[in-house]
Amino acid sequence: MAGSINKVIIVGNVGNQPEIRLTQASGEELATFSVATSERWKDKSTGEQKEKTEWHRVVVFSPGLVRVVKKYVHKGSKLYIEGKLKTRDYEDESGVKKYTTEIVLASYSSTLVLLDTKKDGMEFSDQSDKEGMEYAKAKGLEGDGVEETEKDGEGNENIASDEIPF
């Protein structure tokens, strides 16, 4: 295999108020929060409705997306998230080595879409955040739901699905 892909996509609800803190290395802001995803099914043997919830730890390093999290994301927010899966180790208070797996939003390929805004949703990537926020402020749309398009690495614009004529 010539290459590999590390991409995670989830849609779920924020389970706690996002925590904003500074990185130890550079002193830049980062945001952390948990997102719950659920699946439901009917038990074939009992006919009973079952549900299982998974919790995902999300870490946002992208400065533009950290600003969006600070301003718009709160406990209960419904989000669409695209990021990378990363596992890291750390030592707990008693010196025991622990491992944690997180969804990391750090690079140009990370996306955060607010799905529970007043309109269709606000979409932000670390490339489109600054321009999108300035546009929203200029148009008086800030906080009301703005869908931003993002550009891929070759300068091509990804078109929102509601702009396609078929």
Automatic annotation (TrEMBL):
Residues 123-142 have a biased composition (Basic and acidic residues). GO terms for cellular component: mitochondrial nucleoid. It comes from Trichoplax adhaerens. One of its GO terms (biological process) is positive regulation of mitochondrial DNA replication. GO terms for molecular function: enzyme activator activity; single-stranded DNA binding. Keywords: DNA-binding. It holds the Pfam family SSB. The lineage of its organism: Eukaryota, Metazoa, Placozoa, Uniplacotomia, Trichoplacea. Residues 123-166 are annotated as: Disordered. It comes from the Eukaryota. This is Single-stranded DNA-binding protein.
